[in-house]
Inverse folding.
DNA sequence: AGAGTTTACTGAACCGGTTCAGTGACGGGA
DNA sequence: TCCCGTCACTGAACCGGTTCAGTAAACTCT
């Protein structure tokens, strides 16, 4: 139906081979002929068929991303859209597209990777939300699918990683709170099965330990608003409740802040709160959220580039370290209350 | 590298053609031979190459989605992730994948569609965020790319639409507020270039007109938190300010609610607020948001199915109408204040 | 039993590119 | 002037499937 390379060859009075050379900048055709072929191709509106190209070159010209999050969470977590936008920024400059899979049902994740690998739909994948002892590493190895991981997996991984350290940000948040006089600093963590859930928790622990404070006020949640509320409620029920809570993401922080306010606590008067990600909405909360400003778009850009480099063999094999995100102080953090607010504590205990 | 159909043919002692027939359930092979071929294929772990398949069948086995939103907005709008998850639900049952493009820069959108169409990367696309006199309709026609649209474009469109009416929800919200005694009901609309921005505004106007109320309290925003704040500020500055605001989405409602509170207004004591979408976070706001509960996942599922049907010729060509979303009353709406809160008005005017 | 039909399969062409071996023309060096 | 090397290009094979025309054997019918 569409115009093929044979049409161009015929119109230009040369063979298919010559056209192929001319269009790919390969030697083997004179400049005059090359120019003529290019002109004819343009006049005819020829566009190379990706399918045919892929068949002979054994490439898919596509990268894969499997997202295995609960769609509920996906919906409000600003990470992925920005991350994907970053990937696209890189891909737009190359002849690649992004194939996205969302795996919600259990078991769907492995099926998704197999689906991408089996028919040769993608040339490589970007692995996000790396988990403790992540089984996908072995899977991708088995499927012989090139990959890059976001952050370095704790089990061995043969794939290059693109890392954005979250230690610095959390440390800065804790130090900021300590500087404000807080000593009871809690942490509402993301699911600890994720390595970024773990590393944020460890960073919080270390920062407290460095000042000799106890890291007893931990509650595990799942990065969702619902989980954030539950974990916050748990921490506020404790006898010696926190005067500040460091959350592992903005969504939980927002939900926790709202919950605390609904229990009669003032933020930051009775409770200081920090988030993580610097989602757009954080600056429009009441009070605006102190958070850690990450750059998922850049992360996506770099990860896609690393994968492309790996595919065409120009990758060094070394991990890439992106600049660590930094603390953004807004109005949800303030000085430690002089004495615990008994009224609020009582309410929170109910 | 991988095992091909020729390997299977050789191992089974038949020709390539026979293998192809056997594997596709076509007649032309005896049951005995078919069984043998299937067994051999299984033993060898043969997976058909999508590329080769696509070349001969002239299909890409992929659907395209171009998202042309500001990544900032994308990040917090819960629509897309859930919508995409819905698409995946359908695609998982078919041998199709989703190719996602995010177009952020101006002009990138058209380039993205061309990129998908040119190499034959996708067999069809789903058109979201339809705009007034949407130029993409003509573009897709020119590119001969099959499509379905989300809601029916206001300019003529040859593509089937999958619609989810937003009139009922907005109408219900306005009627709910009227029942609570409100007469000054404002609307913070999304960008009016979008048809869903327009239809929500019109629904608000009609619902007010039906009760003889004036629809003068309109402010256009852009579906972002920042825009929501600006529009809310504008409405609250008006001499005869609203006692209730109907927002075109949750994000603006959240931001507007926070802004009003920061100006000393109580929600819903001084100002009632409604959103649209029922994003997860809305129930964890303080107060929880009265909103309209949509089902983007179902929308994605149905839209993908409609496109697939169209591609294999089984589509009726008629538009599909999904069940209209319904109002979900929570605590951000309440009775109209007895008299305008002078203190708050003064603050809001500052 | 002979003619006609059906079944089961083969071989080759084809999809639209890439790539490699081969060929004729031309230029340069001795 | 002859020989060799280079250049510019052609023709064909190839990637891994699908599909069509052709064929031999088995089956049906009278």
């Amino acid at each position: 139906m569409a115009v093929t390379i044979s049409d161009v060859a015929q119109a230009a009075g040369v063979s298919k081979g010559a056209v192929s050379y001319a269009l790919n900048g390969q030697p083997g055709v004179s400049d005059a002929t090359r120019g003529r072929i290019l002109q004819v191709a343009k006049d005819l509106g020829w566009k190379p068929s990706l399918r045919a190209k892929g068949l002979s070159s054994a490439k898919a010209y596509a990268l894969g991303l499997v997202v295995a999050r609960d769609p509920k969470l996906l919906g409000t977590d600003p990470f992925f859209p920005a991350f994907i936008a970053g990937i696209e920024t890189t891909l737009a400059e190359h002849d690649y597209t992004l194939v996205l899979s969302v795996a919600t049902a259990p078991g769907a994740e492995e099926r998704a990777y197999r689906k991408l690998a089996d028919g040769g739909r993608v040339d490589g994948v970007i692995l996000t939300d790396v988990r403790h002892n992540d089984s996908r590493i072995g899977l991708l190895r088995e499927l012989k699918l090139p990959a890059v991981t976001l952050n370095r997996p704790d089990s061995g991984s043969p794939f290059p990683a693109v890392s954005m350290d979250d230690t610095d940000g959390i440390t800065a948040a804790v130090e900021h709170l300590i500087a404000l006089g807080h000593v009871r600093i809690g942490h509402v963590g993301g699911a600890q099965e994720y390595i970024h859930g773990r590393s944020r928790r460890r960073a919080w622990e270390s920062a407290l330990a460095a000042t000799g404070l106890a890291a007893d006020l931990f509650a595990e949640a799942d990065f969702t608003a619902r989980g954030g509320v539950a974990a916050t409620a748990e921490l506020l029920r404790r006898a010696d409740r926190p005067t500040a809570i460091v959350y592992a993401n903005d969504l939980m922080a927002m939900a926790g802040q709202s919950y605390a306010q609904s229990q009669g606590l003032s933020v930051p008067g009775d409770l200081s709160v920090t988030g993580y990600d610097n989602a757009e909405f954080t600056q429009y909360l009441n009070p605006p959220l102190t958070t850690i400003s990450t750059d998922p778009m850049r992360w996506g850009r770099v990860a896609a580039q690393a994968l492309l480099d790996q595919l065409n063999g120009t990758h060094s094999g070394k991990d890439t370290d992106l600049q660590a995100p930094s603390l953004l102080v807004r109005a949800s953090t303030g000085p430690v209350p002089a004495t615990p607010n008994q009224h609020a504590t009582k309410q929170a205990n109910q």
Remarks:
- The first strand of chain A starts at residue 62 and ends at 67.
- DSSP finds 14 helices and twelve strands in chain A.
- Residues 4-6, 16-17, 19-21, 24, 26, 48-49, 51-57 of chain A lie near DNA strand C (CB under 10 Å from a C1').
